[in-house]
Amino acid sequence: MTGYKYIDPSGYTYAHEHLHIDLSSFKDNIDCRLDQYELICGEMKSLYEQGVRNIIEMTNRYMGRNPQFLLDIMRDTGINVMACTGYYQHDFFPPHVATTPVKVLAQEMIDEIEIGIDGTALKAGIIAEIGSSVDVITPVEKRVFQAAAIAHHETGRPISTHTSFSTMGLEQLALLKSWCVDLSRVTIGHCDLKDNLDNLLRMIDLGAYVQFDTIGKNSYYPDVKRIAMLSALKDRGLLDHVMLSMDITRRSHLKANGGPGFDYLLTTFVPMLLEAGFSQPDIDLMLRDNPSVFYK
């Protein structure tokens, strides 16, 4: 099992997660090293029992990616993990990203899709999470977006982005469109961290998918407001361009460590959606059908 290209369309997909990530040095906080294998396996087994079949894993180069860790999780839990390739966001770039030719950056991504990651059997199935800073796409970030576009054209794999606090999503799409990327093969991440409906409507109108993927992070933006925006999209018949996830990144997010756990999306947020007038087919569309189309 490699996690490459294929997801199981019979079950739910979390569209933006991290199973092994280490930003602890950058943030000077050991909580930002998510690596507790047994706890994570336990949560993945629970998700599997609740109908989740796929995790789109967004940890790329220099974020603490561990391909063998992901392969072991697949082996031990039965859940499918789709790994990613790329570079994250300006503050996390190693110095060489600013000077390496764009075509070389693209070839790194292509190789991780076609050959494998760090000498393992794991191949990337998505170009992600390609990021921008708050209210700006820096010149170096622009180079990474261009490399992602090249890798997309070469491999056909979709692109998933990181927006900082729900800013610059439209600008990301404009960049990718300028390099002839089919925007129906792009999903914009972290669209649920501020009142953002007008931009969401414009992004969907351009053909892109939008992700409500920080569900449960109420200190950033409350879930009740996420549901209000999702309701506005539902009323306009646009849920077929929405995917859901939680973006778990810290040890303290895990249930055994006192956090909400990966299943908060299913056990707390989905009941909130149903209470707000969403139907079960609406839920299935966002968690099963849309990812099956996007990650084909």
UniProtKB/TrEMBL annotation:
Q: Entry's InterPro entries? A: Metal_Hydrolase, Phosphotriesterase
Cofactor binding notes = Binds 2 divalent metal cations per subunit.
Enumerate the residues binding a divalent metal cation 2.
Answer: 129, 162, 190
What GO MF terms are annotated?
A: hydrolase activity; zinc ion binding
Give yes or no: UniProt keyword Glycoprotein. Answer: no
The coenzyme or cofactor needed here is: a divalent metal cation
* UniProt xrefs under Pfam families: PTE
Entries under Gene3D superfamilies matching the protein = Metal-dependent hydrolases
The UniProt keyword set, sorted, is: Hydrolase, Metal-binding
Tell me the NCBIfam families matching this sequence. PRK09875.1
Q: Which family does it belong to?
A: Belongs to the metallo-dependent hydrolases superfamily. Phosphotriesterase family.
Q: What is this protein called?
A: Phosphotriesterase homology protein
